[in-house]
Specification:
The chain is mainly alpha-helical. It is about 55% helix and about 0% strand. It is built from 14 helices and no strands. The protein is globular and about 55 Å long.
């Protein structure tokens, strides 16, 4: 098991990569410099500080909670875990749409009313939870309402990574290395700059990766927006998506999954 370096060390690497100091971050987050310096020195960040640091760093707050090994509050979790197959189907259909139709699909998702949460989101355990970079990025994808199968299918459609569903469990357990190629593709679907994610995780990128293609960028935005959907809403969007390209064959929902292999 890879020892967790501590959130302060990870934050220090990110700030160094961006050429920022503790005072710079404190000013952007609207907190005291002492709070930031304490974290950089090894103190565990509190929930309120993480909520302030995330927008200052340009990150989704849930990702900082995961990196800091703090329990994710319910308000940051996907609304409905049973929506996962439809979310996956929507994203894999969207990447084959023209840009204008992808934007329309994202607008539709964002326009849907927020429904009431009816159950607590409990992602499948990743062992070891305090492991290395693989555990962190897999957990981030889980909090975008992707199961291991969802990760396999969605990454296969949006990036060059083509792995079996079980392999994502192996990556999450730390038994498969998070390579620069994998990190770059994970970053694309997470909507995180690959160089930032490399700095946080300590994965060395031998060369500057190219920016993700527009369909992958839009897939990341759609995946994030769809976290707030109920299963019924997600199914509606998934069934509607193919009509935006005049396709009557149906989306890649629960019974239309692409076959994955190692």
């Amino acid at each position: 098991m890879t020892e967790h370096p501590g959130f302060g060390a990870m934050l220090a690497r990110l700030l160094d990569h961006r050429g920022l100091g503790g005072q710079d971050l404190a000013d952007r987050a609207g907190v005291g410099e002492g709070e930031v310096r304490a974290v950089l020195a090894g103190d565990g960040p509190g929930a309120e500080l993480l909520r302030r640091l995330a927008p200052a760093l340009g990150f989704h707050t849930v990702d900082l909670f995961i990196l800091a090994r703090r329990a994710v509050p319910d308000d940051m979790a996907p609304l409905d875990a049973t929506a996962a197959p439809w979310v996956k189907g929507t994203v894999t259909t969207a990447v084959r749409l023209p840009a204008a139709e992808r934007r329309e699909l994202l607008r539709l998702v964002r326009s849907l009313p927020q429904e009431e949460r009816r159950s607590r989101f409990t992602p499948r355990p990743v062992m070891p939870l305090a492991g290395g970079p693989g555990a962190w990025v897999v957990r981030m994808l889980q909090y975008r309402n992707l199961t291991w199968t969802g990760m396999a299918t969605t990454l296969a459609f949006t990036t060059p990574t083509y792995l079996s569903a079980a392999t994502y469990g192996v990556i999450g357990s730390g038994r498969k290395e998070l390579t620069p190629r994998l990190l770059t593709d994970f970053a694309a679907l997470l909507g995180i700059d690959a160089r930032d994610l490399a700095a946080l995780t300590g994965v060395v990128l031998r060369e500057v990766p190219p920016p993700p293609p527009p369909p992958a960028v839009d897939a990341a935005a759609l995946l994030w927006a769809a976290r707030r959907l109920s299963a019924a809403q997600a199914r509606h969007i998934c069934e509607l998506a193919p009509s935006l390209r005049g396709d009557s064959r149906g989306a890649h929902g629960p019974s239309g999954q692409r076959h994955d292999q190692d």
